[in-house]
Amino acid sequence: MKITAEEVAHVAALARLRLSDQMSAKLTEQLNDILTAMDKLAQLDTSGVPSTNHALELTGAMRPDQARPGLDHQRALANAPDSDGQSFIVPKVI
Fold first, then answer.
1. More confident residue, 41 or 52
2. Tell me, what's the pLDDT at 60?
3. Which of 24, 34, 49, 75 could be bridged to 71 by S-S, CB 3.0 to 4.6 A?
């Protein structure tokens, strides 16, 4: 599969990019090089290779969720600059 200069110009227009003719030609060549490399990779037999979702095997990166008791009203409002005993009082934003 080859990318044409017209396709690069179309994508550039969608992205609101102004490309010179020289830059458009360079991008066309680079994208075609990438697609050629992808074609080579597609030819490899990967039937015996297990699928992965990360390059490194990470385990236990996240602790399991555990329910814990929250703060009661008095402790939550203890350091509030201003409260009415039930809620924080903050200045209007609008």
1. 41
2. 73
3. 75
* 28 CB neighbour count, 10 Å cutoff: 19
State pLDDT tens for residues 53-91: 777 877 777 888 899 999 888 898 998 999 998 899 999
Three-state DSSP at 94 gives coil
Give the separation between CA 32 and CA 26, rounded to whole angstroms: 10
**CA max distance for the chain:** 69
CA 37 to chain centre: 24
Written as one letter, the residue type at 88 is F
Domains and CATH numbers, the chain: 5-42 (1.10.20)
* pTM confidence score: 0.52
